[in-house]
Here is the input.
Amino acid sequence: MQETKEIFCNQCGKKLKVENDILKEDAFEAKKQWGYFSQKDAVLHSFVLCEECYDEMISRFAIPVEITEVTEL
Ligand SMILES: [Zn+2]
Here is the structure.
């Protein structure tokens, strides 16, 4: 039996498909270790956003995301 860890979108709470600890659904994964120059005392923040929530987040950006085409996948 395969052990599957559940991963949820941090914004909407939607469950994302995970198999063998690998996201089988494309999602935005963020990890940030805050350091000395931040107001946060050396903590690691991480979250996952589903594609819909990611699109919603970037739609609020004043400057759009940089998009580079990837030829090799
Ligand atoms: Zn979501």
